[in-house]
Amino acid sequence: GGVVPRSGAAEEEEQVWRRGNRKVINGYIGEARAALAAAAARDGDGGDDSAAAAALGLVGAVLEMSPRMEAALELRARALLALRRYRDVAEMLRDYIPSCAKSCAGDDTATSSSSTSCSSGSGDLACASRAGLLSPGRELSVSGAGASRFLCCLDVSEIKRRVVAGLSRSSEAETQWRYLVLGQACFHLGLMEDAVVLLQTGRRLATAAFRRESVCWSEDSFSPSNSTANVPAASRRAPSKYSQASGMPPASEADSVSQLLAHVKLLLRRRAAAVAALDAGLPAEAVRHFNKVLDARRGGVLPHSFATACLVGRAAAFRASGRPADAIADCNRALALDPAFIPALRARADLLESVGAIPDSLRDLDHLKLLYDAALRDGKLPGPSWRPQGGVRQREIAGAHRELVARVQQLRARVAAGDGCNVDYYALLGVPRGCARSEVVRAHLLLTLKLKPDRSASFAERLELVDEHRDLDAVRDQARMSALFLYRMLQKGYSHIMSAVLDEEAAARQRKKKPQRQRPCNNKKKKNWQPCRRAPSQSVSTSRCRSRSRKRSHHRHRRRRG
Fold this sequence. Notes:
Number of domains: 3
Strand content: under 5%
Number of strands: 0
Order of helices and strands: HHHHHHHHHHHHHHHHHHHHHHH
């Protein structure tokens, strides 16, 4: 069971092998850096992918010989970022994702609620800072408060991550690339709050490193141009996709990070304003703010996972304002982007049940039940652990599954009783019962122009699809199918309501055509009877006769005198 001592020859041979490997590693690292520099120079000309792929292959060979080499890890992360493989970057540095690190710390109630509110809340930027979510190898900015926070949040897994990160970390300047690279990847994956925390931390560490280095500079070497070179690999990195999409000129990594951070904060502020308006009972204002987020104006990049959550939020605002057709359309768009998004399935099932489309609601509930079964079987929600599910937590799945089974049984009983085909088309089109024909025509025209199947897939062109399992063609096909289903339902509702309106108009015309019978005047039979008043024509004729008789008697009287 003891350790076998090695001879001097074996140790010398191992040292020679290490020196040879070191030379090979240094050569590979230099070639990988040159390839990434070429990718940065040819970014936008179609040659960056091949150069970045070559750099990734070289770095992979280095990591086989030295798995913990910091320079190789940095080059691998930057190569994956240049290849737009953001999921691989997140899997590589998952321990540094704030929400993932906090949710993986344990099953504590306060911990889970804090991480959920930060990942799927109303976009409050102070939420992440209040939770204190930073990477395991972070440096505490305030020493006194940091010690008290560490003692209050003592956790075995947290201590383990800190020790491992402390052993693998050589200096603060060497690990700041993790925050910057992972922050950009989190943005493209839709983890906006995590991106804000990581980018701010990386920028703070870069500024601190620049200040320490500037102390040793001479007065001539200290110039404004050096302030943008505080990130060691800034000149070797390709410009970010955000700077390309927004039409900005190629800038250093510090400038691109600052622009990206401002863009993320703007999106979070608008989403927070929309959620606050919805909570305050102002659905129209909430719809306006969600429209600003989803329009992706000014060339800003909008990740599809973040857009999916915003579509579900706008659907809730549409439902609160009495527009179920628009709400169902937003749920269709969200499910086209992510078919396993639990909040979107819940919202569409509730909307279809509210308008009386019970069979369609049952189809969504069956899909939701399959997702719950998979979560209970696997012990985790569908998708990666760092991926948000709109406030859904694993510990809530068991209770939600029981409620879902009971609800499905009730709806199936209603369908068996013949109550499954009574769709409330008035509520679907948003018109009151007994409305005029013009109101029905106007509502139908607006909905058909807005929800036409040919235009249903145009929203996906404004988004950034980073999931390799959902390409643009699959999203378009799913969006067209769901939009066609909703369009047919609207056409059927329009025909049903118009037939009812035409029947009411025909009944009204029939009532007007019926003659009104006059009751005979028979007042003489009563005790206190009064003579009936004559018609105006009769009174005029009698007065004329009387005047003529008076004239005749007057002429006769004059003749007699004469």
